[in-house]
Amino acid sequence: MYLKSIEIQGFKSFANKIKFEFHDGITGIVGPNGSGKSNVADAVRWVLGEQKIKQLRGSKMEDVIFSGTEMRKPLGFAFVAITLDNSDKKLPIDYDEVTVSRRLFRSGESEYMINGTVCRLKDVHELFYDTGIGKEGYSIIGQGQIDKILSGKPEERRELFDEAAGIVKFKRRKNETLKK
Ligand code: ATP
Ligand code: MG
């Protein structure tokens, strides 16, 4: 499984639709300060279901929608889609390619999709449990996160091992069953 592409439109500094395509090996994103490098990582966090606006460096969720510049009017929605190669079926879904998208309007209305079908945030979370990719996974390591892991509480560190061991989904299901 690997990340094939990220499509962004109206998210933060990306007013125009843009598609990043990734190939084998390592890809670096370079650019001057403020050019939007971190916004690409924010876009990935966001499409994976990030609900905490602080994690996305904003103060309210609407802040992820392109807010305009001197030359350009603000936009009405933000859209991000990531496409993953799933030919090894690491994601529990019977498709060789999986596209997850999220759209948010200024009204607050929002929508997640998996391969073009509207779904719940929960479905997005479940798709990525135990893959290390989910928003709680370790596929995106932000500034300061290593320190947090090293100095974190044992229970927090345990979560990282649970994810790596592939037992998060069982723990979540057990907790849900116990709640019922
Ligand atoms: P650095 O090298 O300093 O880390 P960077 O390339 O990571 O910079 P980002 O933090 O990704 O830069 O981008 C910051 C830019 O994104 C700022 O110019 C900011 O105005 C712009 N930006 C953030 N949110 C929005 C928004 N909602 N609408 C328009 N522009 C936005
Ligand atoms: Mg940055």
Structure characteristics:
180 residues; alpha+beta; Rossmann fold; six-stranded antiparallel β-sheet; 6 strands; 28% helix; 21% strand; globular; binds adenosine-5'-triphosphate; binds magnesium ion
Describe the structure.
This protein has 180 residues and is an alpha+beta fold. It has a domain at 2-120: P-loop containing nucleotide triphosphate hydrolases (Rossmann fold). Helices cover 28% and strands 21% of the residues. The protein has helices at residues 37-47, 121-128, 145-151, 154-165, 168-179; strands spanning 2-9, 18-21, 77-85, 97-105, 110-114, 117-119. A six-stranded antiparallel β-sheet has the order 2-1-3-4-5-6. The protein is globular, with a radius of gyration of 17 Å. The site of adenosine-5'-triphosphate has 14 residues, from α1. Belongs to the SMC family. Homodimer. ATP binds at residues 32-39. It is found in: Cytoplasm.
Write the layout of secondary structure elements.
Layout: E1 2-9, E2 18-21, H1 37-47, E3 77-85, E4 97-105, E5 110-114, E6 117-119, H2 121-128, H3 145-151, H4 154-165, H5 168-179
Antiparallel strand pairs: 1-2, 1-3, 3-4, 4-5, 5-6
The protein binds adenosine-5'-triphosphate and magnesium ion.
Magnesium ion binds next to helix 1.
Protein name: Chromosome partition protein Smc
Organism: Eubacterium uniforme
Family: Belongs to the SMC family.
Give me a quick take on this structure.
This protein is of the alpha+beta class and 180 residues long. Helix content is 28%, strand content 21%.
Could you say which overall geometry the principal axes of the C-alpha atoms support?
Answer: globular
Q: Beta-strand percentage?
A: 15-25%
Please state the structural category: alpha+beta
Enumerate how many helices there are, as a single number: 5
Per CATH, the class of the domain at 2-120 reads Alpha Beta
Low-confidence stretches: none
- What are the secondary-structure elements, in order, as H or E? EEHEEEEHHHH
- What is the radius of gyration? 17 Å
Number of strands: 6
In angstroms, what separates the terminal alpha carbons? 34 Å
Q: Determine the fraction of residues in helical runs and give it as a percent range.
A: 25-40%
Q: CATH superfamily name of the domain at 2-120?
A: P-loop containing nucleotide triphosphate hydrolases
Largest sheet: 6 strands, antiparallel
Spatial sequence of strands, sheet with the most strands: 2-1-3-4-5-6
Q: Which whole number gives the mean pLDDT?
A: 92
CATH-defined topology of the domain at 2-120: Rossmann fold
Q: Can you tell me the CATH architecture of the domain at 2-120?
A: 3-Layer(aba) Sandwich
